[in-house]
Amino acid sequence: VAVSNNLALLQSTIWLPWIFALMVLALRNHSKKALALLPLVFVLEILSGHPQPPLYIGMVLVAYLLFAPYWKFWKRAVVFFVPTIIALAMTAFLVFPFLQLSSRSTRVQMTLDEVINGSLHPALLTHWFFPNIFDNADLRIVWGPEWGKLKQTDGYITLVGIIAVLLFSLKGKKTYEEKVLVFSALFSIVFALGKYVPGMEGLYTKISFLRLVRNPSAMIIIWSFVGAAIVGKSLEWFSRQKRFLFWFIRCVWILSVVSGLLLLTRGWWFDAGWNMLDSFTRNALNTSAFHTLARDSIITYAILLSVFFTSLFSVFVMYLLSKKHVYWPLIFVLITL
Description:
This protein is mostly helical.
């Protein structure tokens, strides 16, 4: 969900599902226990120590409360604001000194260029399907859009998981809560891409509030939260769509075979292919500050290896999903691998 070495971000992010679930139970199921627990979970969220996740879950809750088909609007507002006020009162010893100190920070008054430079590069969306496309942790090297940048928040929920979530979002019958989550996920992706989306830079210019996010790519936390929240329902729905399953099994199987063959024969074709490409680009690779034959060979190997194993495991998972009786524990073990 988040960068693993940022413990404050991880501590804050883990409370997002609890907050949303308790809000749903309080409104839809009229649960007094959930309503009583909301201030406590809000307090734990605030005490976790990172200001961005509370801002993001606040956006999702506002979208949920605006059109929720439960109770009148003023009652829904009370359910949200009363626990929030109680939580702020209980954490005032932390919140108010933080606001006072952060108001003097240079990071609060970031320029537009500083903010949008943290936009998520569109090429990094491939990480959601195949991890390690632009990095190799064993060799400690990165390339492409990862080169020279801090590691950004990721949205990987496995290849099968993301296929299931996307198909369920487009074609599945959804509850009101699931519709809000899907809308929030799409919203977060658009805003995370930032400057790479036409017109988004102008929006950041006119609405100064958006600059509070500081790093647009971190909005992917919402997508990660939503993906984790609905991936189970999506996989269950996907397992009943046999036509889709068999089509994806064939496509992903072809991908695993092709990537596997390229891995096995890399010693035969890579050197000649690299020299041919260098000649075609008028020695652009040879004169590059980054590209060398040895380094590009390592990069190509890492990419093919990631595609091969990810697609191979995905074929196994989708094959098990296509069975009449799905053994879910085995599915989740394979997905974890």
